[in-house]
Amino acid sequence: MRIVFIGDIVGAVGRKALKESLPKLKKLYPNAIYIANGENAAAGRGITAALAKEFYDQGVHGLTMGNHTWDNKDIFEWIDDEPRIVRPANFPQGNPGKGHMVVKAHGQELAVINLQGRTFLPAIDDPFRKVDDILEQLKNKYKFIMVDFHAEATSEKIAMGWHLDGRVSFVVGTHTHVQTNDDRILPNGTAYLTDVGMTGPRDGVLGMERAGVLQKFKTQLPVRFVVDEGKYHFHAVTVELDAQTGKAKSIAKIRYIEDEFVME
Ligand SMILES: [Fe+2]
Ligand SMILES: [Fe+2]
């Protein structure tokens, strides 16, 4: 059992990065389950039905989201009817959509849980208690469970890794858009990476045009950030899971830089 998880797809450049990188990955890992974070797909803010369909058609089996979930109002039209997308499970009760799903591909089932941190982000429900509740529901039903923890603080993400070690197969962080170098398998068999990094423009600031971001830092005046253009970098991570135990056997970061070099 193999999972490939692709970091936050940012705008048109991110979508181009996915289109060019996915076929390479599919050649390397034809039987993997592919999950991607889509919270920034529509010009950096949210996702539309058309973009979600584009990703599914290209071979992404499931999508996770984050703090930008509701930025594009299009999503309210279809999220309740789409089984292949999750938004953070600890959003307030009554929010549309769902926080966990089961992705089926290649005759295998992967439970996917999306959570959002509360450090330097809105004060939503407790992600630690929420994931305990969900795991109680999933207990003994699914061997392969992964968590996308969409959070800002490395400490909160590392804490979540320890909280879930031995209880899920894989914990990956999203949201900071910068890939961390701490991929490892925790002592009880959970593959862990603090942040997978993003799939989008490489010469801006986290996917946004750098002039606006610089202006904001220098003047503290209101600036509307726009998604950057230009060349991309693509960030993902792959984990291999033991078919019998569901525990992680290996984890490897993936980074493709447009027109430069390929590192695996
Ligand atoms: Fe993001
Ligand atoms: Fe985010």
TrEMBL record:
Signal peptide positions (record): none
* Pfam families xrefs: YmdB
Q: Which CDD domains match?
A: MPP_DR1281
InterPro entries for this protein: Metallo-depent_PP-like, YmdB-like
Protein name, as recorded: TIGR00282 family metallophosphoesterase
The root-end lineage is: Bacteria, Bacillati, Bacillota, Bacilli, Bacillales
